[in-house]
Amino acid sequence: MRTAIVGVGYTPLTPNSGTTTLDLALQACRAAIADAGLKPADIDGVASYSMGDSAPAQSVATGLAMETIDYLLDLSLGGQAPCYLTLLADAAIKAGMAKTVVIYRALNGRSGARIGRTDTHGAPAPSTAYRQALGFTAYPQYMAMWARRFMIETGANEDDLAAVVMAQRWYSHRNPRAVVRGELTREQYYQSPMVASPLRAVDCTREVDGACAVVLTSLDRARDLRHKPAILLGGAYASGARPGLDMGDGTLWADYARNCQHMLRERLWRNAGIGPQDVGAAEIYDCFSSTVLFGLEGLGLVPKGGAGDFIRSGATGVTGKLPVNTHGGLLCEGYLHGMNSIAEAVLQLRGDAGERTVAGLESVVVTSGALMDGSAMVLAGHE
Amino acid sequence: MTSTAVPLQSCRGCGRAWHTVLPSCPYCAGIDLERGDASGLGRVYSWVTVARSLEDPPRPVPYTIIAVDLDVGARVFGRYDATEEPVAGERVACCRVEAERNGALTFRSVKET
């Protein structure tokens, strides 16, 4: 038995939604359910993830007026979660626990609590309290520390980061949902102010208010619905050993040049039944440009140290060998913590991504997370 | 070569040491732990230079945070007490432990002997 994504829905992505995360979640879920050709009454499961910044699944089940509720799940995770949560819903459907699950991420990520600013909300773990004393407190700083080590070990440089951003701007310029539009030259890249060296402002995702949802059901049901299903071939979640007490706690983590994507790759490709050489496109979790290099090399899509040259060759463009982050990535479409990268993969497999559509696409690998733990999965147009 | 001692936690069972105080050993799960001072000598593993403070109120910038692999085998974060960019593998020594600021460590570059 397989499952498939049969519907996707978005709210507008804005700097200030002017509404609640519950309202955003319901807008995206209703849109995804309608896109599938279903009604809320057809849904019996709701799943989401948040970092204490969103409406829980029970509230969305209430707002959808669901009479039959077989599965509610809230993961207390951020960017590691979207593929993981889809895999959990897949497992629930296969186990007979649920039939059709809507999965969402909703947040006021710009007007409300901003992930990129600080990690001081709540009582800090001892690791966090220590870093606060140093002034080592923010997400871009942690990623920069990993990016620097990656550069030391692989020979990657700032031009490689520029290549990531420039390649993704081509796509975002052609994506009406994207909050960062306009193509970027190399000169413009280097004019962008440094935030946490080697990361510049344009290397950082743009925080937004908004929501995105997808609907997952069995492939048998999916075949009777409106769109060509995006079939889940398989995936994996992994963390390396000693992930620490919190996101920034790298003191017990041995290797900053390899993240969760390296840890999960063997199981990912085995579970998906295809290899990195077979996949047609990649939506790589990109809270920061550097993580695209980690992801491409970590998954074995590109040899270690080769990601920059690969991108500069045009291979990640829409007619290239492996189109990457075809929505412009989280960098440009907006930071919905990776839920939108799954939705983009589904639209691409349907051939419904406008000018950005990758011709003849048969499979897409999607990743979630770029530090110690994370997940990934492969979606395909055929079994 | 002199350095200020760095307080670490260590495991009597497996002998490993680490910086953040934990209830059990992250290497062998043992609970027979001790707290002690270790040599503050080590090498730069990675770093970040903060050019824009994201705190409220903002902290003066720029400043550099380094990840140091201490000779005793633990990795620690600290401030880098120099204006130039660090180098991977550079020899550093702890020069300050600020007890009143959660034990914040500062390192300076030292010449190889």
Overall description:
The complex is a heterodimer of chains A (383) and B (113). Chain A is α/β, with parallel strands linked by helices and 383 residues long. Chain A contains 13 helices and eleven strands. Chain A has helices at residues 21-35, 57-63, 81-94, 126-134, 139-154, 158-172, 186-191, 219-222, 260-272, 290-298, 307-312, 329-333, 339-350; strands at 3-10, 45-49, 71-75, 100-108, 194-197, 199-200, 209-218, 230-239, 281-283, 363-368, 373-380. In chain A, the strands form two sheets. Chain A has a nine-stranded mixed beta sheet with strand order 3-2-4-7-1-8-11-10-9, sandwiched between helices. The longest helix of chain A has 16 residues, at 139-154. Chain A starts with a strand and ends with a strand. With 113 residues, chain B is mainly β. Chain B has strands at residues 6-11, 17-18, 33-38, 41-50, 63-70, 75-80, 91-98, 104-109. A five-stranded mixed β-barrel of chain B has the order 4-5-6-8-7. In chain B, strands 2-1-3 form a three-stranded antiparallel beta sheet, with no helix packed on it. In chain B, a hairpin with a 5-residue loop joins β7 and β8 (104-109). The N and C termini of chain B lie close together (8 Å). The A-B interface holds A 116-118, 126-127, 129-138, 140-141, 144-146, 148-149, 152, 193-197, 242, 244-245, 249-252, 256 and B 18-22, 26-27, 45-56, 59, 63, 65, 67, 74-79, 88, 98, 101-105. β5 of chain A pairs antiparallel with β4 (41-50) of chain B.
